[in-house]
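Trying the structure run again after the queue cleared.
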Amino acid sequence: MPKEKIGKIIVLLILIASSAWAEKAPVEYDAFDGQVVGARAIGMGEAFAGLSNDASAPFWNPAGLAIMGTNSFTICSYLQRESSAKWDDVIKSDPLRGGKLAYISFASPSGALSIRPLSKITNNTYTNNNGVEQWVDKKINVNEIMLTTARMYKENVYTGVSLNYLNSNLSLAQRTKDATSDVTSINVDTGNGWSLDLGMVFVPSSYLSFGISAINTIGYMYWSDYDKNRLPLTLNCGVAMTLPQKITFMYDIKRIYYTDHEDLTTKHVGAEMSVLSMFIFRAGMSGENWNDPDKVAYTFGVGFSDKGYMLDMAMKKNKIRDSVIPDQFSTISVYVVSLSMPFGSN
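Done. Tokens:
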């Protein structure tokens, strides 16, 4: 066989192999986002990157651990969702699809071990095009373990790093039926991935702090049967200002860079007021466009703190679009609780 033909065959085989390898995993673009964690931060409009001084810091800004001040065990749960909308619409944008547990963390000022469920998604679809019926059942579970370390880089400057491990299970069942055939295929795959988060907090005075974090600075999910997923990069910049009257104001700008979806930019503002050193009241708002009331979320929160024990509750109210009538929106209220308690010695 001539060398020229052999070369063409080799190139063709490489192209075929590359095409097969390039098949993307059938996961939603936001399957690796997870829920926002920490009732305290949620109550302040999800504006927390500029301070992040509690056990939810690995999620918001790893550097915040260094200014936390005490060891703390924290658990965060989404207790309830209320809305007049259909339940399918209520949980459609929820990566946990109505799941309650959002975050567990053992944290100290020097490091933390945290666990987050990112996705528990089940999608069932049916189509009928010109007599060709197709059923698709898809399930994906993604969980993340975060190992975080933080320290004072130099006076008034704190840095933090999180190295994260992700595990995922994906199952895809498809059935196609027409007048002459009925074909069923099932594929079950396991994914393993990793990511790196970076953060910095600058505290020029006891009244002011600035923070910036890069979540999934580098991050990939690897599959056995599909090409790898590049995890979405999230950049978060924030400022926190605390007045002598024990009132703290926060402002954040967050941008998420997706590989298979348009980028998302949101603004967050919130306030926290301490009363009698034990009771805390919070309020905030967030959204893509504050001039559009359908794209703005309002949050409220209360907290109780005593001797390192903290109980925080938050409510988030936003609007969701009806899946059948796109011009119709319904209000949804989500209730979140976080419990923190000290452990060990500082």
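Residues 72 and 342 are 4 Å apart (CA to CA). Worth checking whether this holds up in the mutant runs.
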